[in-house]
């Protein structure tokens, strides 16, 4: 079992009203950016990741977003390079580089190879398509998003494994001279873990490539469905999927007392939380979602499936709900959403004693080999953040590791994903345990 | 009443769904970036004396997407091939918005393809002043609403688009917007070389623009005028981006006059 630490590195100095007024984090004007405070926080977050290593986490995970105060990681490879040099043991998990919006896979191959070399082989490199808003920020044609994702990935793997120089003429990328003089330390290349919010196309792609898939705080029931889908696809490719193929990240806040934990957990819904990542017009740029996904979305306007809330689709189709700018009312709704999230096991809040059984249940349901906590969002003080990390590392991680051992959750380093062969036509073994869902009252 | 038909035309290695209605000399209609909205009153009026031919753009749902088409120039090339293969040139054309862009690309590549060219609020050339609305950065609903100056007081618009959007409509709009992004994301809904290639084109051309257009600025009309010497301009006072819906009588009068000249 790999246990990872992850924070979005929230910009903590933005009045909440600015986000609410803007209808989301993306596109809040950077006239509100405080350079001194940002400099302090870059140092703080790098130190925090080093502290995670000190506390015994197996991995620290980084991500990047663009033009968005929800996440200060605009160029994650810069932070990864610093951590590669500063840390000694932890794996550096990038979840992930948004290939279609960076639009330069050769440069990406070089940057990541350097990070892997500096860290002497501790890089785990993941890829994402980039959020809807990032197609706008980077002027990346959303209608070619998945094509560019696939092509960039295939190119990078080649750039790392095929001796150069060679020439590349693809559909979206073209290089005259591919011969990078920075190759990854790990052979043939670093492992890849792919984060996602349940897009079936991505799950299918992961199963095909035998890459572990990490559900980003996705609701448990559809996550089970997608694990089954992954395993069915894996069977078509001749292998039995197992815990080594699955990871899960969940918002987690701990404190010495239940009351304090509840207070800091409010940070998860600050400004609307993850659901307010971007306003509807930036969330679903044309062509970004597949035709199949659009069909499902249009019909299931009440569902949060595929990581896009029903509210966003409804607004896309019919306009915003009236009276959206009553701040007190919005905050009341957000608080209610936080409580609901805890009931639905989408947010884990409490003391080590109350948190351990919840996470053990999630592990039992989803049978994951990788577990990552999403640290507190919003303007939460350094001390509270570090206390939460410390309590998790000292009191929770040992219990989770013991549980993983007990129920046989192997991670991708203990058993290579895709290494358990399955004969053609043979029935695959279950990959989830839905019995536990009943206990949680989830169907 | 005309009953328009929909048939597939196979030509130039493609299969395109085409709406036809009316009798008389053929008139090619190139719909806009949101797709064919159905047979409207202006179609009905014009169909009394012209045979309307309305190809449904590949990728917009009814015609399959064609993978090699990656720009408006590519699409214009395909349409031109089809017209040549069918022996339909020269033909009169009306192009709406992005449909105007397609027509202009066709004219630039082959000035003999059209006998008359009417461009209604055409995209395709970077405006000399102002910006084309970023239709990709607004919701489909707001995009639709921006196409007319006064939605609530545009009866035909309300008739076609006024009801609560159905899942099928949403999907059709997403198809249209996706394909439009595929072709026109960057440079945004224009082709920097188009004005240079339009130089010397002698096709009698009318540029129509509603004075309250919120999608295409007046600067596009001025840019086309600079590129196409001799092009005439018809302003429709108070109309937005869909003068054919917002003032069908005046639209019909201007179109007939131009086509009969």
Question: How would you summarize this macromolecular structure in one to three sentences?
Answer:
The complex is a heterodimer of chains A (443) and B (261). Helices cover 45% and strands 13% of the residues of chain A. With 443 residues, chain A is α/β, with parallel strands linked by helices.
Main attributes of the structure:
heterodimer, A: 443 residues, alpha/beta, TIM Barrel, 9-stranded parallel beta sheet, two-stranded antiparallel ribbon, B: alpha/beta, 10 helices, 8 strands
Explain what you see.
The complex is a heterodimer of chains A (443) and B (261). With 443 residues, chain A is an alpha/beta fold. Chain A has one domain (2-74, 193-440): TIM Barrel. Helix content of chain A is 45%, strand content 13%. In chain A, the strands form 2 sheets. In chain A, strands 1, 2, 3, 4, 7, 8, 9, 10 and 11 form a 9-stranded parallel β-sheet that branches. A two-stranded antiparallel sheet of chain A has the order 5-6. Chain A is globular and about 60 Å long. Residues 302-308 of chain A have low confidence and may be disordered. By secondary structure, chain B is of the alpha/beta class. Chain B has one domain: Alpha/Beta hydrolase fold, catalytic domain (Rossmann fold). Helices cover 36% and strands 20% of the residues of chain B. Chain B is built from 10 helices and 8 strands. Chain B has helices at 41-46, 72-85, 98-109, 140-145, 155-161, 167-184, 194-197, 218-227, 243-246, 248-260, and strands spanning 5-11, 14-21, 25-30, 50-55, 91-96, 114-120, 205-210, 232-236. An 8-stranded mixed β-sheet of chain B has the order 1-2-4-3-5-6-7-8, sandwiched between helices. Chain B is globular. Chain B starts with a strand and ends with a helix. The mean pLDDT of chain B is 97.
């Amino acid at each position: 079992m790999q246990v990872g630490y992850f924070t979005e590195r929230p910009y903590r100095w933005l009045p909440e009203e600015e986000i609410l007024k803007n209808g989301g984090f993306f596109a809040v004007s950077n006239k509100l950016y405080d350079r001194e405070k940002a400099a302090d926080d870059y140092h703080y977050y790098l130190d925090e990741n080093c502290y995670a290593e000190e506390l015994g986490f197996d991995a620290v995970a980084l991500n990047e977003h663009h033009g968005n105060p929800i996440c200060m990681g605009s160029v994650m490879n810069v932070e990864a390079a610093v951590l590669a040099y500063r840390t000694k043991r932890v794996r550096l998990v990038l979840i992930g580089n948004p290939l279609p919006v960076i639009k330069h896979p050769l440069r990406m191959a070089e940057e990541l190879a350097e990070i892997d070399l500096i860290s002497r082989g501790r890089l785990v490199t993941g890829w994402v398509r980039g959020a809807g808003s990032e197609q706008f920020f980077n002027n990346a044609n959303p209608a070619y998003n998945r094509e560019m994702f696939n092509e960039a990935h295939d190119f990078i793997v080649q750039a790392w494994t095929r001796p150069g120089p060679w020439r590349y003429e693809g559909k979206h990328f073209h290089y005259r001279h591919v011969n990078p003089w920075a190759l990854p330390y790990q052979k043939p290349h670093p492992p890849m873990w792919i984060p996602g919010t349940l897009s079936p196309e991505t799950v299918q792609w992961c199963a095909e490539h035998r890459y572990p898939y990490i559900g980003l705080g996705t609701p448990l029931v559809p996550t089970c469905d997608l694990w089954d889908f992954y395993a069915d696809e894996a069977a078509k490719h001749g292998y039995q999927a197992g815990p080594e193929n699955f990871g899960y990240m969940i918002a987690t806040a701990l404190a010495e007392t239940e009351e304090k934990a509840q207070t800091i957990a409010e940070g998860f819904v600050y400004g609307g939380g993850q659901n307010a990542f971007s306003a509807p017009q930036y969330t679903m740029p044309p062509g970004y979602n597949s035709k199949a996904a659009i069909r499902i979305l249009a019909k299931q306007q009440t569902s949060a499936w595929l990581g896009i809330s029903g509210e966003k689709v409804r607004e896309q189709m019919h306009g915003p709900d009236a009276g959206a700018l009553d701040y007190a009312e919005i905050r009341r709704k957000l608080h209610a959403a936080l409580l609901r999230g805890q009931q639905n096991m989408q947010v884990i809040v409490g003391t080590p004693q109350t948190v351990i059984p919840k996470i053990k249940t999630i592990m039992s349901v989803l049978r994951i080999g990788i577990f990552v906590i999403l640290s507190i969002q919003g303007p939460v003080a350094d001390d509270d953040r570090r206390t939460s990390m410390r309590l998790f590392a000292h009191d929770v991680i040992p219990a989770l590791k013991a549980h993983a051992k007990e129920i046989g959750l192997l991670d991708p380093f203990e058993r290579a994903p895709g290494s358990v062969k399955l004969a053609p036509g043979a029935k695959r073994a279950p990959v989830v345990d839905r019995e536990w869902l009943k206990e949680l009252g989830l169907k | 009443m005309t009953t328009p038909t929909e048939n597939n035309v196979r030509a130039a290695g493609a299969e395109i769904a085409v709406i036809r209605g009316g009798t008389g000399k053929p008139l090619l209609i190139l719909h806009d970036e949101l797709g064919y909205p159905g047979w409207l009153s202006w179609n009905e009026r014009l169909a009394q004396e012209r045979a309307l031919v309305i190809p449904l753009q590949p990728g917009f749902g009814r015609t399959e997407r064609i993978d090699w088409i990656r720009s408006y120039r590519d699409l214009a090339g395909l349409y031109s091939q089809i017209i040549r293969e069918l022996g339909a040139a020269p033909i009169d054309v009306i192009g709406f918005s992005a449909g105007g862009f397609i027509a202009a690309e066709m004219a630039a590549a082959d000035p003999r393809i059209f006998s008359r060219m009417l461009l209604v609020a055409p995209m395709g050339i970077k405006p000399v002043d102002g910006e084309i609305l970023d239709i990709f950065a607004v919701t489909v609903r707001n995009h639709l609403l921006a196409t007319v100056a006064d939605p609530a007081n545009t009866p035909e618009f309300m008739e076609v688009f006024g009801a609560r959007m159905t899942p099928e409509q949403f999907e059709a709009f997403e198809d249209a917007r996706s394909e439009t992004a595929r072709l026109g994301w960057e440079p945004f809904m224009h082709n920097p070389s188009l004005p240079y290639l339009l130089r010397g084109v002698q096709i009698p051309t009318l540029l129509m623009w509603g004075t309250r257009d919120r999608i295409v600025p007046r600067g596009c009309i001025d840019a086309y005028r600079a590129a196409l010497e001799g092009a005439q301009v018809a302003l429709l006072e108070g109309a937005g981006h869909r003068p054919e819906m917002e003032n069908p009588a005046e639209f019909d009068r201007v179109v007939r006059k131009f086509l009969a000249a």
